[in-house]
Amino acid sequence: MITTADRLSQVEEYYFSRKLKEVRQLIAEGNPVINMGIGSPDLAPNHTVIDAIHKAMFDEKAHEYQSYQGLPELRKGMADFYQTHFGVDLDYTHEVLPLMGSKEGIMHISLAFLNAGDQVLIPNPGYPTYASVTELVQAKAVLYDVKEELNWQPDFEALEQLDLTQVKVMWVSYPHMPTGANGTIELFEKLIAFGKKHHILIVNDNPYSFVLNDNPLSILQVEGAKDVAIELNSLSKTYNMAGWRVGMVLGASRWIEAILKVKSNMDSGMFYGIQKGAIEALKLGEDWFQMQNERYDKRRGLIFKLAEKLGCTFDTHSVGLFVWAKLPEGMKDSETFIDKILLEHHIFITPGTIFGTNGEGYIRFSLCVAEEQIQEAIQRI
């Protein structure tokens, strides 16, 4: 009998893959489900981005294999983006690597740095892919708590009590996913010091910096960060290009070279037209971010009203593409709560439990929903 690899016994099908089958079935049965679960931008990229990919179709080399490292002008655009918005100097020839989405980077980084049995610090709650990829490469996930009372930041005293001798990588994500808690330079300084002390590679996953955030930050702004830190970023949320799959990893050349060894064995380069569109997106200025955030701010205000209708509480100062809300007092089971809302009102909201045990008692609303649909959801409740 042919069996699957043992590593698959350690991971489950991605929650949204499973749950959206149920949602699609409800829709097929004629139920008008409003999907507030997925952070997939419904707004369009800027017209200059669309124009660029269209024009690129007629370039002589548009349909050939592309460089594993991406076009030089794309890497330079990414480096310029970091200089403009974060004040971070990067050598685009050696310290920037375009990715087919930052999710791809999670796998590449794990394959590049982790051996079987190595340990990985993963936030609880946090992006589920950190843990699943860790298991797929046969490393060991070590969950660390981030809780509301610490503003969803690591408890460094608790971390120091752990046996860290086998820990190779630490995943962090600020602005924090799923809670929307913002990072600070002070936090990043602590993380860099922690990484240096224990010889741990700190990886900051940073796709939400420019959504409803007046103070975008990068961990690479900290002096000496490149010694022990790399950063993932993405054009998905910032420029409404989720389906284009354009991300990046940035850091010291020795880290980037290691990741490139993996990447160059897994794909044959990013499509030329997409790279040309990404180059144009990275040129957009503050007007673009202001326009985006005006739209999202209106939606967030309506989501706040919906959360209040449901008896939930939330932090009005959180940033990013979601609203993280605490269940009404006395309610503890997030999945039971969202199933009730789905079946009774045909509104799909994400339960906090998919992000870890510390997500129990919370739910998450996406802002990737048209205003009229949010109004409709409010009326249903």
What does this structure look like?
The chain is α/β, with parallel strands linked by helices and 381 residues long. Helix content is 38%, strand content 15%. The protein contains twelve helices and 14 strands. Strands 2-9-8-7-6-3-4-5 form an eight-stranded mixed β-sheet, with helices on both faces. It has a four-stranded antiparallel β-sheet with strand order 10-11-14-13. A two-stranded parallel sheet has the order 1-12. α3 (72-86) runs parallel beside α9. The chain is globular, with a radius of gyration of 21 Å. The model has no long low-confidence stretch (mean pLDDT 94).
> What global shape is seen?
globular
> What class, by secondary structure content?
alpha/beta
Radius of gyration: 21 Å
Distance between the termini: 52 Å
Strand order within the widest beta sheet: 2-9-8-7-6-3-4-5
Number of helices: 12
What ranges have pLDDT less than 50 throughout 5 or more consecutive residues? none
